[in-house]
Amino acid sequence: MYTIELQPEELRLLRSALGSYLQAFGHNEADVVQAAKTLLLKLPEPVDVKAG
Known about the structure:
By secondary structure, the chain is mainly α.
């Protein structure tokens, strides 16, 4: 198991990249599509951090 720390913007970028991957390449590679969907489910929702 690996642990990485992401800033909120990095998490948004990762979620967006996986979503784009699924839209662009999700038609033929069923195993990769399922792995990407599973990974997306593991990611937390980004939290908006507002400067004080």
